[in-house]
Amino acid sequence: MGPVTDDEIIRKRLLIDGDGAGDDRRINLLVKSFIKWCNSGSQEEEYSQYQRMLSTLSRCEFSMGKTLLVYDMNLREMKNYEKTYKEIERSIAEAHEKIAECKKQILQAKRTRKYHQEYDALAKVIHRHPDRRETLKKLEALGKELEHLSHIKESVEGNLEWKRKQFYVLLSILYELKQTLENDEKPSKVEAAQETSMETDPKP
Questions:
Q1: Residue pLDDT, tens place only, 145-180
Q2: How far apart are the C-alpha atoms of 164 and 83, rounded to whole Å?
Q3: What does the alpha-carbon distance between residue 148 and residue 154 come to, in Å, rounded to a whole number?
């Protein structure tokens, strides 16, 4: 037989003493009544002790039944407490999980807000600059205008070159005309001088 534990001792004590209302005394009285019943001399005394034993047994059985009910009730309460404790632990664990999830959502919200702020700042910077399509159109228009101006420049330079050549030709013609006129004037001057000299000479 193994050693008796404290729980078994307390359980037996409760079964014997019930709710502490004097079951030990009742058992002692029952034992004394049993001894008296065994040593009784007359039938009346024997019957009287027998009735006392039955009454004491009835009270002890009632107290024992009540104690068993209390014990069962305590067991049920302990089970309920364990169930409630497990539910509380589960609720605490769920609360921790929800708190962790809320922290993740808060971090995500902060990250999203930061992205929105960066996007708004970038959008403001982009709005301050012209649209890429408009810029390309302007560049294309400037390219066409530059090409047109290049053609005009080439045309003007061509005209200037042509006029320069014409001017050189004109200068050459004027120079030749001047030379021709000068050459034509020399014989006229000689003839005029001869005529003058003839007029001034005396006749013989």
A1: 888 888 888 888 888 888 888 888 888 888 888 888
A2: 115
A3: 10
